[in-house]
Amino acid sequence: GKLLLQLDYSTEDDVLIVGVVQGKGVICKTSVQTAQVLVQIYDENDRMLDERKIEIQPMTFEPQWNEEVLFALSGRPVTSLNVQVRLYELDSFSNQHVIGCIKLPLAEQSFEESRADWYDLEDEHKIECDYVGEVLLSLNYFPTTQRLTIVVLKARNLKIDNVSGLWGPLVKVFFHVNKRRVGRKRTAMQKKTFNPVYNEAFAFKVSQEAMPKITFRILVVSKTSHGQDEVLGHVTLGQNVIGSGFSHWSHMLATLRKPVAMWHPIIPFT
């Protein structure tokens, strides 16, 4: 998701103004859709100096706030400070769940003209890992027929080390219920390519009650005629995962009966 923010600095009053206008593409993590924004300022030593909460709003894909918060800087150079904006979701017990965070070093901001800009919400718990490629998957769920379909469309920029002899990437799909594997499918191998196209669909019968218990584990493997198969990495999809797998699952549930495609980074095994 993204937030539309406006930063301004009053030299006369020595006040930093942070305007939170709206969001878009915001994905909730619980069924209770209420959102709150927390704006914090930090010094150059990453020590929090002050914070402001913005009024709770109903959560939609494009929540609206149109509010400003002010921080008195008390003589601190504005370029030495950092602004952090966190978007929280509140569940039915008022517990906070972080949807994403935006970090803005004010040394990189221009205050000559006041304008609003879109900023990406980042996952605070994102795990940095080596890039080994991406896979394009599509999800579709029909509640009336209880049919959950995953389509392996293509992959790109695969990092394959062993390219001697006959080799080629394929994708394995593992279907889990309550963390127990109950189904397994695989695509055909696409010979000698780092950008394979599959367009293979796999359907599973799943009741609406069972949907929160479902997890897909996608394995990208390069088969070879010389030596052991090379496992590039995996992607996990479901309601109880983090990262792009959760976002994709949430988009599918929000647009039932329509296929939703998304690129996923392939996470290598460490």
Structure notes:
The chain has 270 residues and is mainly β. It folds into 2 domains: 2-120, Sandwich (Immunoglobulin-like), CATH 2.60.40; 133-268, C2 domain (Immunoglobulin-like), CATH 2.60.40.150. Helix content is 4%, strand content 53%. The chain has a 4-stranded antiparallel beta sheet with strand order 5-2-1-8, with no helix packed on it. The chain is elongated, with a radius of gyration of 23 Å. This is C2 domain-containing protein. One of its GO terms (cellular component) is exocytic vesicle. GO terms for molecular function: calcium ion sensor activity; calcium-dependent phospholipid binding; SNARE binding. Residues 1-119, 131-264 form the C2 domain.
Using DSSP, what is the number of strands?
Answer: 16
User: What is the element string, with H for helices and E for strands?
Assistant: EEEEEEEEEEEEEEEHE
**Major sheet: size, sense and barrel closure?**
4 strands, antiparallel
Q: Indicate the CATH topology of the largest domain.
A: Immunoglobulin-like
CATH top-level class of the largest domain: Mainly Beta
Q: Span between N and C termini?
A: 28 Å
How many domains make up the coordinates?
Answer: 2
GO cellular component, one term: plasma membrane
Organism: Nematostella vectensis (Starlet sea anemone)
Protein name: C2 domain-containing protein
Domain C2: 1-119, 131-264
